[in-house]
Amino acid sequence: MGITTTLPNLESYRALFLAKGVQYPLQKIGTSAQGLLQELPRTERKGWPWDSQTSPLLYHAKKEWPKITIVTPSFNQGQYIEETIRSVLLQNYPNLEYIVIDGGSTDGTLEILAKYSPWISYWVSEKDKGHGHAINKGFSLASGKLYGWINSDDLYMDEAFFTLANAFEQSKADMIYGDGLVIDEASGELTYEKAFLVNSRYLFIGGVLMQHSTFWKADIHEPIQEALYCAVDSELWFRLVPKKKLKHVKFPLGIARKQPEAKTMNEKFAAKWKADNILIAQLHQFEKTIPFFKYIQSKFYILETRYVQRLYKYFNRTNTAPYLAKLASKKTKP
């Protein structure tokens, strides 16, 4: 194939950091009774996560909260990354580890990272091998019990961490996935995206799990396949989802941004998505390991998927108005 498809050893990545003097485990984010809003750099922008924060009072009900590790892979997204960072920090989650791995940005990203450095557990900017490599480097330093990653042009919803931490505790699930929101940068339109029914049978439709709204326990984590360019999350789900307990929460945990350079929204990446899907099928030997492999390539599978997912969304309706109202400066689509 001309590319390396062996999954990396994250301990070897961590060893490289330790050799450079990085202290492990990393420091968790400091919090205060009033929250971080008044401590973070001031901004004139309005709305979440600029002039509002998750109330620290929400966390007073319990003394201990499971440690959450969030990784942000970054490269030349300077116009968006500050919003991403604030959406993590202003959760005011009392047991948080936040890691940003930048691939050597030249667009002002480093100035933003330096500005927020006191509130980031660890960040580095250096040339890397791409998206998957950056995510793996970040998780090699993780010490939390719950994992998630947020790309540097996306963000989390207000109260997302409070919601997911409670969902993990109550459900005893291995993975939590939520609904999501999509911001269209061109029109300003905000759309509520309801989650799909997620199980091994429907992973083949692509995008069945919204990565920005998905979290999992550290003890089931596996390295990202670095040979992929776009579908790094899709391939991971093929390894994480089977035989695991999943829980859907009817809450928009994450917000994706529809913008010209977003891989999921831009036609110029179509060829790379196709190449990734072919590689995933080869890596997992779907033709040999999936009894219904021919069926999932047929129109009947597509029809089945549409029918089942429409039913699932119908029976999992939720009132979207409160979440859309929190980002009221955007136009909204029901």
Describe what is shown at a glance.
The protein has helices at residues 10-19, 81-89, 109-116, 131-140, 160-171, 232-240, 270-283, 286-289, 299-315, 321-325; strands at 68-74, 96-102, 122-125, 146-149, 155-156, 175-184, 189-193, 214-217, 246-258, 331-333. With 334 residues, the chain is of the alpha/beta class.
The chain-level structural class is alpha/beta
Estimate the helix proportion, in percent.
Answer: 25-40%
Task: Please report the first level of CATH classification, the CATH class.
Answer: Alpha Beta
CA-CA gap between termini? 45 Å
Q: What would CATH call the architecture?
A: Alpha-Beta Complex
Query: In percent, how much strand structure appears in the residues?
Result: 15-25%
Order of helices and strands: HEHEHEHEEHEEEHEHHHHE
Number of extended strands: 10
The name of the CATH superfamily reads Spore Coat Polysaccharide Biosynthesis Protein SpsA, Chain A
What count of structural domains? 1
Shape: globular
Q: Roughly what is the average pLDDT, rounded to an integer? A: 93
CATH topology: Spore Coat Polysaccharide Biosynthesis Protein SpsA, Chain A
Low-confidence stretches: none
The largest sheet, given as strand count, sense and whether it forms a barrel, is: 10 strands, mixed
Provide the gyration radius in Å: 19 Å
| Number of helical elements | 10
What does this structure look like?
By secondary structure, the chain is of the alpha/beta class. The protein has one domain (10-333): Spore Coat Polysaccharide Biosynthesis Protein SpsA, Chain A, CATH 3.90.550.10. Helices cover 29% and strands 18% of the residues. The chain is built from ten helices and ten strands. Strands 1, 2, 3, 4, 5, 6, 7, 8, 9 and 10 form a ten-stranded mixed sheet that branches. Strand 1 (68-74), helix 2 (81-89) and strand 2 form a beta-alpha-beta unit. It is globular and about 55 Å long.
